[in-house]
Specification:
2 copies of one chain form a homodimer.
Chain A (H helix, E strand, L loop, with lengths): L1 H30 L5 H8 L3 H13 L3 E7 L8 E9 L5 H10 L3 E7 L5 E7 L2 H12 L5 E15 L4 H6 L6
Antiparallel strand pairs in A: 2-4, 2-5, 3-4
Helix pairs in contact in A: 2-3
The structure holds a DNA duplex (30 and 30 nucleotides).
Chain lengths: 174, 174
DNA sequence: AATTTATTTACAAAAAACGTATTAAAAAAT
DNA sequence: ATTTTTTAATACGTTTTTTGTAAATAAATT
């Protein structure tokens, strides 16, 4: 009977630590995607092999992806804009999304609520480039009824989802 | 005389390959931030030490940053929204940016052209969370005159700046 | 042409990753 | 309640990679 209680306790602790461990790994990699498994394991006192296993799982289920984030300004993109698109008739939505996805200038593409249907954020070299993109690649698409373009004039913050906020909820894994 | 010509040729090739080399490194790291220097060097036929030097420079001047990009949905963020803010009087702009930058829910914050002044994209757990954020953290700020919130209902694309497009211009390093 | 500066490269020591095997724990079945 | 199955954590030796330093080469400056 006493033995049973003991087992229950370890089980409980482990299942809490499980998710907590993933959070800690994610948090460290979020800041520095090249941090070695060895360093991570030292930081949170778990065996290197465990970190590696967890890492592989997190990568495979798409929870995290390690990427090099390139600063657009440094490589010559000086016109960052938000293009809102109104589609009429709405039956064109799917084909428009398909076509827009292909455009290399588009860095973010989503279906939005509000008076427009689609938001497409684009990174262009300059106003000329943006202008040509709009005229030759977007306005020509069948179903594009109206657009509204606004420039991002100064960027104050670009951040990752805050894991501390996520931890408050019960971590529903997809 | 013949020797001199030979030298000139190598020089010329090298200087073209210089910027091209940075592009190639950036392109590979953009896709896989954990790719080893060894692997990169094999891919583009340059000594490992060269790749490493270039890498260190690219990191130090902020051209690229290796980060773990966490999928918001996988960790329980189900309300992704765009909040447009109108500021009156405009003298409050600076303090509002300062305050907004602190909010952990905000993943993107920028000064925008158009009928509103500020765009703040937020990642919240759910509608309740978003609602509380708006009411208790944003609407209460002095100078926030009006806001307009739209939900990102489905995300079709999240991409990095396209290096092929950048290569077309003359790579002005900042 | 000489000097300075920057870039590329080579190499050896240290550190890290990988593959595999082992151990331990949790869940499921009996 | 015990056994079996499945899943997760860990240890360890080998291979690979990174790191620090020094040398060679090229470019820019004088």
């Amino acid at each position: 009977m006493f033995y049973f209680l003991f087992l229950w306790q370890t089980t409980n602790n482990m299942s809490v630590l499980n998710d907590e461990l993933d959070y800690q790994i994610l948090k460290l990699l979020q800041k520095d995607g090249r941090m070695s498994f060895t360093e991570i394991s030292k930081e949170i006192n778990v065996a290197v092999s465990t970190i590696r296993h967890r890492y592989i799982n997190l990568i495979e289920d798409g929870t995290i992806k390690i990427i090099g984030r390139v600063d657009p300004n440094k490589i010559g993109f000086n016109a960052y804009a938000s293009i809102l698109i109104s589609v009429k008739p709405k039956t064109y939505m799917n084909t428009i999304f398909e076509e827009l996805t292909k455009l290399p200038e588009i860095s973010f593409l989503a279906l939005v609520s509000g008076s427009f249907d689609i938001e497409a954020d684009v990174m262009c070299r300059d106003m000329e480039h943006l202008n040509v993109l709009l005229a030759d690649k977007i306005h020509v698409l069948e179903g594009v009824f109206d657009t509204k373009t606004n420039m991002y004039m100064k960027i104050y913050k670009v951040a990752q989802p805050d894991l501390e906020l996520a931890r408050l909820s019960s971590m529903p894994k997809q």
